[in-house]
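Please decode residue identities from the backbone states below.
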């Protein structure tokens, strides 16, 4: 069953509350009203899929600029080439894997608002990506656990994934992020439960990729709380999964989702190009 938005987007929901496929929209030639509707649908459905697109690197960057302010490709990893410093290339031939649940770049004070991912080279089988709805997950926690989580703060640390890359492959000099050259990855604190700045809905904002621990509790308590939240966040009823075709575009709201890319295609090459939109500083229910 499909639905139409005010700008006549054709949305095919992928679940009762989360995810949708958008058919019949050419992102390269979309009108401004179409993209306003895309932004609204993105906040509502959290992850959108656009099949059959014909964007190259220039077109992907142009689309991103119409939707918001683009960041550098990544705080640490440089752009795909000199002409496209905004594009982060995930190439499986160069350790470009994302096979751990994560929310993009939460190890920076101002993580991205959202991401736009394009399939460039795909294996014959495998390489699907799944997204989890952090708001639905929060809302389905029991009330006492929600009350506890609302009060907590967590540390996010990019050194585990990118510290070596920054030091050895970039010589200690990363990208310009929020106006400053990244020369080290200092751990940052974010609320465990994030309030969405546009809707006011609350969502779980910790992830196994970058969250190291919870502030003010013992190591054992931190591990137990995080494990509980991770297990709940990634329950099947909170997840949508996408099987890629070359040219597909996925957009997601980084403030209300986490995602995971299957690494089930052996030595076959998989290349994805991602851009991110500049976000805001996360805040929680108690701030």
């Amino acid at each position: 069953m499909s639905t139409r938005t005010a700008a006549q987007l054709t949305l095919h929901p992928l679940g009762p509350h989360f995810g949708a496929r958008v058919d019949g929209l050419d992102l390269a030639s979309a009108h401004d009203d179409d993209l306003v509707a895309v932004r609204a649908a993105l906040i509502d459905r959290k992850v959108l899929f656009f099949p059959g697109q014909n964007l190259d690197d220039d077109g992907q960057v142009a689309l991103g600029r119409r939707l918001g302010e683009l960041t550098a490709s990544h705080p640490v990893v440089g752009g795909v080439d000199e002409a496209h410093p905004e594009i982060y290339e995930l190439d499986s031939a160069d350790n470009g894997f994302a096979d751990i649940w994560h929310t993009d770049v939460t190890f920076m004070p101002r993580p991205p608002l959202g991401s736009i991912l394009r399939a460039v080279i795909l294996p014959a089988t495998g390489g699907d990506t799944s997204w989890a709805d952090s708001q639905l997950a929060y809302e389905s926690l029991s009330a006492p656990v929600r009350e506890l989580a609302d009060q907590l703060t967590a540390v996010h640390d990019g050194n585990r994934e990118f510290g070596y890359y920054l030091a050895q492959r970039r010589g200690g000099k990363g990208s310009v992020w929020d106006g400053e050259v990244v020369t080290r990855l200092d751990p940052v604190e974010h609320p465990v439960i994030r309030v969405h700045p546009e809707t006011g809905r609350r969502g779980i904002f910790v992830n196994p990729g970058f969250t190291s621990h919870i502030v003010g509790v013992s190591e054992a308590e931190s591990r137990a709380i995080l494990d509980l939240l991770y297990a709940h966040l990634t329950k099947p009823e909170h997840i949508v999964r996408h099987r890629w075709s070359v040219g597909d575009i996925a957009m997601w709201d980084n403030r209300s989702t986490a995602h995971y890319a299957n690494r089930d295609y052996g030595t076959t090459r998989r290349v994805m190009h991602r851009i991110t939109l500049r976000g805001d500083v996360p805040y929680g229910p108690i701030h």
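Observation: Residues 97 and 113 are 21 Å apart (CA to CA).
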